[in-house]
Amino acid sequence: VIHLPWPLKCWDYKHEPPCLAGCFGSWGLSATDMTKGLVLGIYSKEKEDDVPPFTSAGQNCDKLTTGKLRGTSNISGPPLKDFPSVVLVGLSIKAAGINEQENWREGKENIRAALAAGCRQIQDPELSSVEVDPCGDTQAAEEGAVLGLYEYDDLKQKKKLAMSAKLYGSGAQEAWPKGVLFACGQKLACHLMETQANEMMPTRFAEIIEKNLKSANSETEVHIRTRSWIEEQAMGSFLSVAKGSDEPPVFLEIHYKGSPNANKPPLVFVGKGITFDSGGISIKASANMDLMRADMGGAATICSGIMSAAKLNLPINITGLAPLCENTPSSKVNKLEDVVRARNGKTIQVDNTDAEGRLILADIILNATTLTGAMDIALGSGATGVFTNLSWLWNKMPLFKHYTRQIVDCQLADVNNVGKYRCAGACTAVAFLREFVTHPKWAHLDTAGMMTNKDEVPYLRKGITGRPTRTLIDFLLRFSQDNA
After folding, report:
1. How far is residue 146's CA from residue 188's CA, in Å, rounded to a whole number?
2. Residue 12's pLDDT is what?
3. Tens of pLDDT, residues 354-386
4. Cβ-based neighbours of 106, under 8 Å, separated by 6 or more
5. CB-based contacts of 66: which residues, under 8 Å, 6+ apart?
6. Residue 352 pLDDT grade (very low, low, confident, very high; cuts 50, 70, 90)
7. Secondary structure letter of residue 280 according to DSSP
8. What is the pTM of this model?
9. Which residues form the Cytosol aminopeptidase domain (predicted)?
């Protein structure tokens, strides 16, 4: 099957999302011949009378076929003998680059979305492999291909054929494995978050991270701390959440030591690890509660990011900390207005057991969490909320003392685990966390709005996203370069 973009107006959508051309014809090939597909890119025309330009790879293919890729009449055989299935995908305008106003890499996102759509189209006939046009950015093309093909089907008897994605042509070969690594890091986070809570308990989560990290690099250490260790550390705030479930809590501690100076202070990441969040006594509504299997997205993304940094052999030291437990109702769970004591001695009045993420983090510092529904309301899936006490990040998302006053004005304890008012929930949550941070360089990422995908990110399927793993990997890569 070859998919062609005729009529031409199919491609004349200017800045609209990349689209996929429809089916054009069949070559009468047997199923055994259908082993490999090809995805090529084509740009939208900039003027009404223009012919939509191919990418460099597309131009070469068009020459090889003596123009058959642009032909409108019936063709007697496949235009490229090595590829029984060819898909052309739209990349929007050729000049798309960085949207300075929104700090958005528009060209890269177009490539990811287009390649993902093309690979999925080829995946339908269950081909064994697909080669993809680098489209001017090999890493983005590979990320789109790998993430577009990924679908969680571990628990299904009938699974889609696993399809491998390869680079078509010889351009920018060094960027291809980098794209694989970034995409596979996000895939791991997505897999951890998507897996059902009766399969992905705290102990199982820790075992998977240990296995993956140790295979990534020899310069790693993994410590899976059990309840007795947590009790010895007097982590009363963490344990107050964990005690409602029969699943044992785990404090996961991972280290990557890539710096030539083993004593150099590490970057420290803390990730919220609630493997299922019912809300406790302050129980959530049943609608969409199933998504709370992904409430350990902070732990999943920071662990996957550190694993990817280890595979890249970055010359920095990194520590990852993840308190893992379930938040479920029982006779042992926190009750409203219970007071618990954190590791640093501060007391916390619990006025909402569904504000549990901040309780498990208080005992533990860039931390990432699916912390608040308020962040989803504020930013949706477009961006991660960042709060910081670093001056160079101040313009991104400052911390105002206005919210701190709502937390420390507490009747029974030093701090309250919720703010006084319904509004600004994301801000009061981070104000609470700030009361337990003593380091002068700290930032908090609230990733709740990014946890799921409906149709906002076209190269990801609907459901759990594994975001913002690639952002964390890119941050670590840039940090290592700046501190070389």
Report:
1. 12
2. 26
3. 999 889 988 874 444 444 555 555 545 445 566
4. 92, 96, 97, 98, 99
5. none
6. very high
7. T
8. 0.83
9. 352-359
Which ranges of 348-440 does DSSP label H, i.e. alpha helix?
357-362, 373-379, 401-408, 425-434
Q: Which of 212, 219, 279, 290 minimizes the C-alpha distance to 252?
A: 212
Q: Do residues 259 and 307 lie in contact, with contact meaning Cβ atoms separated by under 8 Å?
A: no
Of 118, 151, 137, 95, the residue nearest 37 (C-alpha) = 118
More confident residue, 99 or 149: 149
- For residue 124, count other CB atoms closer than 10 A to its CB: 11
Handedness of CA 146, 147, 148, 151 (dihedral sign): positive
C-alpha to C-alpha distance for 461 and 144, rounded to whole angstroms: 11
Residue 254 CA to residue 217 CA, distance in Å, equals 12
Which residues belong to CATH 3.40.630.10 in the chain?
A: 184-482
- Residue 358 annotated among the catalytic residues of the structure: yes
> Is residue 468 classed exposed, middle or buried when 0-12, 13-18 and 19+ CB atoms within 10 A define those classes?
buried
Going across the sheet that includes 347-350, the strands are 338-341, 347-350, 415-416
Instruction: Work out the pLDDT band at 6, boundaries 50, 70, 90.
Output: very low
Q: 32: pLDDT confidence band, cut at 50, 70 and 90? A: very low
Cα dihedral 331, 332, 337, 342, rounded to 10, equals -170
| Torsion angle (degrees, nearest 10) of CA 9, 11, 15, 20 | 130
* Catalytic hit among 358, 461, 467, 470: 358
Percent of the chain residues past pLDDT 70, beyond the cut: 80
Q: Are 271 and 295 in contact (CB under 8 A)?
A: no
Q: Is 184-482 a CATH 3.40.630.10 domain? A: yes
Q: Which amino acid type is present at position 73?
A: S
Q: Find which of 66-80, 126-140, 178-192, 351-365 is predicted with most confidence, using mean pLDDT.
A: 178-192
Q: Centre a 10 Å sphere on the Cβ of residue 376 and count the other Cβ atoms it contains.
A: 19
Write out pLDDT tens, residues 389-436.
665 554 445 456 777 888 888 899 999 998 877 677 777 887 888 888
Active site residue 341: no
What confidence score (pLDDT) does residue 71 get?
Answer: 56
Q: Which of 204, 227, 284, 441 is catalytic?
A: 284
Contact status, residue 85 vs residue 1, Cβ threshold 8 Å: yes
The DSSP code sequence of 126-195 is T-SEEEE--TT-HHHHHHHHHHHH----TT-SS-PPP-EEEE-SSTTTTHHHHHHHHHHHHHHHHHHHHS
Residue 282 CA to residue 354 CA, distance in Å, equals 6
Which CATH code for domain 2-171? 3.40.220.10
